[in-house]
Amino acid sequence: MTDRQHSYNNVDVLISTEDICKKVLEVGAQISTDYAGKNVLIIAVLNGSFIFCADLVRILNLKCKVDFISVSSYIDTQTQGRVKVVSGIKEDIIGKDVIIVEDIVDRGFTLDFLIKEISLKKPKSIKTCVFLDKKCAREMEVAVDYNCFKIGNDFVVGYGLDCSGFFRHLPYVGKIKESV
Ligand code: PRP
Fold first, then answer.
1. CATH at 100
2. pTM for the structure as a whole
3. Ligand 1 centre and the CA of 50: distance in Å?
4. Is the Cβ atom of 109 under 6 angstroms away from ligand 1?
5. Is 106 exposed, middle or buried (0-12, 13-18, 19+ CB in 10 A)?
6. How many domains does the chain have?
């Protein structure tokens, strides 16, 4: 990809900053209602969820802790879509009401892995909060409990999502133009 292709001007806006703000407020309000009085642990999945999670937790009207997990995917010739933990959760999970916060669920392997991995640590409950749901790409069924937007099969960037590490900082979700 050229420098020119990495410019803001080369991205079509799919979901505007204004629409993101409204929707994140709505989802945050719903979580605040659903989790009132509970022992909440928010787990943000790095790197992609850093912006969504930062916006979401500042809306929550809840007593909660926030921790982070970093995972990476690798190709396994037999099973496809393997996920491994790069940096784990430091907070105690036993008895907590865990909410996993993801930027996107695509094929579903990452979220499926995380739910199984975190379940082993005996939380009281686990739910998922996903900014973008690319349902059409799903290969592994996973429960998405809170979702901001559903998208089609587009490769999207911005609001945490990257292309080769670039574009994460865009305050909107966009699609890179095919040619400039
Ligand atoms: C993205 C995203 C999810 C995962 C979803 O992470 O943040 O964690 O892919 O894909 P799946 O549903 O097909 O498993 P990525 O590996 O791109 O890393 P990043 O979060 O650092 O951008």
1. 3.40.50.2020
2. 0.92
3. 12
4. yes
5. buried
6. 1
